[in-house]
């Protein structure tokens, strides 16, 4: 236990593990697994489970397996397997050589089902799924036993072998565990453990005509892998009884235990795979890695860092009650991480040209600028300054209110790292749109201070018109307009935020950003944190995504007061 001092003492899973270790259970081992079903891309909810499972292994010098829970051949694809691996690695976790597949255990799992049949604890049934539902009873009424429940063992074995051999059509037979049709926990009312499916599997091809059910597979896979703490989300609480029943009846290589924790629910987004697929299929977003998606690859493309995501999960802790988390918690983790690591640069998103009339036309100065005001180790750079620059359109007002401290006719402001300028004239086009400002600068104020002690209240950012680089900047906002679009109904699409993406094709960024690398993050001064788009950025075409605003102002440019 390397990090025992800052572990959360209220975390019930770590308390259980501590107690297990104290009693030398599981020979003192801690072995977890992350068990995704390869039927979609991972999202931020999975991140919580990944951080927990891999995190516990790290903390307790144990192991964490990556196990694909691939028992449903219809929905599973190799593409998802590869994407899941890439995403977990990107988050910074390593399963070493322990990449496993439930499908690798199909033969063993089949053997266990045969054992149950031989022990008189499972039978082949021919009730349809509808009939089974009817027989199951309700929370207040016991179920009825299937007429096949007492089928002789030999007949069960024969039918099960023929199911495997592909003799029967889908839906004709199932294998059910013989537990208790009157059990208060409905899951124990003779659950199906095998069904017929004539579907090819992404790993086992056509070799199986029957597939084990999730509940039967999961506990056996855990037992085969010698998992000690099998951690899943709360909706599996009732399934634990079946998990334990299977492990108790069979001679498995180990006896794992299941523990449930609360899912991550995040405001202003949805975390249901089915609905995420719908977002992509219906074109509400531009793909699985759209920067607005709560998928790991979407967040990665947006510019979220693995460190911020891991901190976020750590901060959430592990609890037993489902609570929705405010998006601001995640955004603050991001800001904290990005603040430390990102160099400050200047970029103008909505450019307005400024001509400095008394600045010599052919002169260019290189003005030093710090890369990080709190971290001198990040060094400094030189910014070219000349007669024509761009400033942010919103940093000028022709008719400003009293408390406006940025540029206005006759007003003086500081250009960050450069000079004081005063606006002398506003040039408009035939539509009366402002197209240019004519200003003068005070050569005495180089670097941003006046020798006569004169103060200005506003400091604005700028980029040299002659040296700046054209860039496309994509501003992202929340995907939904309400905190919980997924209240259960099917009307969630109506809450999509129509302004969740805003593309600004004509931005100007400082010349050094030509050297940016895809996925590199920056703070654009006064505007927020941005990253060079992972796929669309190229030396010929600068494309930046806004990761998050500087503060929780919901994306407004802050005023220039200092
Ligand atoms: P499905 O409905 O397809 O099963 P799923 O989100 O449960 O969707 P899995 O691939 O089964 O997907 O999930 C892998 C693991 O991640 C499981 O152990 C699951 O409990 C966990 N997990 C899924 N969603 C969340 C969430 N929102 N918060 C925490 N853990 C989650
Ligand atoms: Mg699941």
Essential attributes:
562 residues; alpha/beta; Rossmann fold; Ribosomal Protein L25, Chain P; 7-stranded mixed beta sheet; 12 helices; 23% strand; disordered C terminus; binds adenosine-5'-triphosphate; binds magnesium ion
Walk me through this protein's architecture:
By secondary structure, the chain is an alpha/beta fold. Among the domains are: 259 residues, HUPs (Rossmann fold), CATH 3.40.50.620; 102 residues, Ribosomal Protein L25, Chain P, CATH 2.40.240.10. Helices cover 25% and strands 23% of the residues. The protein is built from 12 helices and 27 strands. The N terminus and C terminus are likely disordered. The structure holds adenosine-5'-triphosphate and magnesium ion. Adenosine-5'-triphosphate (ATP) binds next to helix 2 and strand 8.
**SS-derived structural category:** alpha/beta
Report the mean per-residue pLDDT as an integer: 94
CATH topology of the domain at 3-261: Rossmann fold
* Bound molecule types: adenosine-5'-triphosphate, magnesium ion
User: Helix fraction?
Assistant: 10-25%
CATH H-tier superfamily of the domain at 3-261: HUPs
Please summarize the sheet with the most strands.
7 strands, mixed
Low-confidence runs: 1-5, 555-562
Multimerization state: single chain
Number of helices: 12
Radius of gyration: 31 Å
Strand proportion, as a percent range, falls in 15-25%
CATH class of the domain at 3-261: Alpha Beta
| Shape by Cα distribution | elongated
């Amino acid at each position: 236990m390397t990090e025992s001092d800052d572990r959360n003492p209220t975390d019930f899973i770590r308390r259980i593990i501590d107690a297990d270790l104290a009693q030398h259970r599981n020979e003192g081992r801690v072995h977890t697994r992350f068990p995704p079903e390869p039927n979609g891309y991972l999202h931020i909810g999975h991140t919580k489970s990944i951080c927990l499972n891999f995190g516990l292994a790290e903390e307790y010098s144990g192991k964490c397996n990556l196990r694909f829970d691939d028992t449903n051949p219809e929905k599973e694809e190799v593409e998802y397997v590869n994407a899941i691996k890439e995403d977990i690695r990107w988050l910074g976790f390593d399963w070493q050589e322990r990449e496993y597949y439930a499908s690798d255990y199909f033969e063993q799992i089949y053997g266990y089902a045969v054992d149950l049949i031989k022990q008189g604890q499972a039978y082949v049934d021919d009730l349809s799924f509808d009939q089974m539902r009817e027989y199951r009873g309700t929370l207040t009424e016991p179920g009825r036993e299937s007429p096949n429940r007492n089928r002789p063992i030999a007949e069960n074995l024969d039918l099960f072998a023929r199911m495997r051999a592909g003799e029967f059509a889908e839906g004709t037979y199932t294998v059910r565990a013989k537990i208790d049709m009157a059990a208060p926990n409905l899951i124990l009312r003779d659950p199906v453990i095998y069904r017929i499916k004539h579907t090819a599997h992404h790993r086992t091809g056509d070799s199986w005509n029957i597939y084990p059910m999730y509940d039967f597979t999961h506990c056996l896979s855990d037992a085969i892998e010698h998992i000690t703490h099998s951690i899943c989300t709360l909706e599996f609480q009732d399934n634990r009884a079946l998990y334990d029943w299977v492990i108790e009846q069979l001679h498995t290589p180990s006896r794992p235990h299941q523990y449930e924790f609360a899912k991550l629910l995040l405001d202003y987004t949805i975390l249901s795979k089915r609905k995420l697929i719908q977002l992509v299929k219906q074109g509400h977003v531009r793909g699985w890695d759209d920067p607005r998606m709560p998928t790991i690859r979407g967040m990665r493309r947006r510019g979220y860092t693995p460190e911020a995501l891991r901190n976020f999960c750590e901060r959430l802790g592990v609890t037993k009650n489902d609570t929705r988390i405010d998006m601001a918690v995640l955004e603050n983790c991001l800001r904290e991480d990005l603040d430390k690591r990102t160099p400050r640069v200047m970029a103008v998103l909505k450019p307005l040209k400024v001509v400095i009339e008394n600045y010599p036309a052919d002169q260019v100065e290189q003005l030093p600028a710090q890369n990080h005001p709190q971290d001198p180790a990040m060094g400094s750079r030189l910014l070219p300054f000349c007669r024509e620059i761009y400033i942010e359109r919103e940093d000028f007002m022709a008719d400003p209110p009293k408390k406006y401290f940025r540029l206005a006719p006759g007003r003086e402001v500081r250009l960050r790292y450069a000079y004081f300028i005063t606006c002398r004239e506003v040039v408009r086009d035939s539509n009366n749109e402002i197209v240019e400002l004519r200003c003068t600068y005070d050569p005495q104020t180089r670097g941003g201070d006046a020798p006569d002690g004169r103060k200005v209240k506003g400091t604005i950012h700028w980029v040299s018109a002659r040296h700046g680089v054209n860039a496309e900047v994509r501003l992202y906002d929340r995907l939904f307009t309400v905190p919980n679009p997924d209240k259960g109904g099917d009307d969630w699409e109506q809450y999509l935020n129509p302004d969740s993406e805003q593309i600004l094709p004509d931005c100007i960024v400082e010349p050094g950003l030509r050297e940016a690398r895809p996925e590199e993050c920056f703070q654009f001064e006064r505007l927020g944190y941005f990253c060079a788009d992972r796929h669309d950025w190229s030396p010929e075409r600068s494309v930046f995504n806004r990761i998050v605003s500087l503060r929780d102002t919901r994306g407004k440019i802050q005023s220039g007061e200092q």
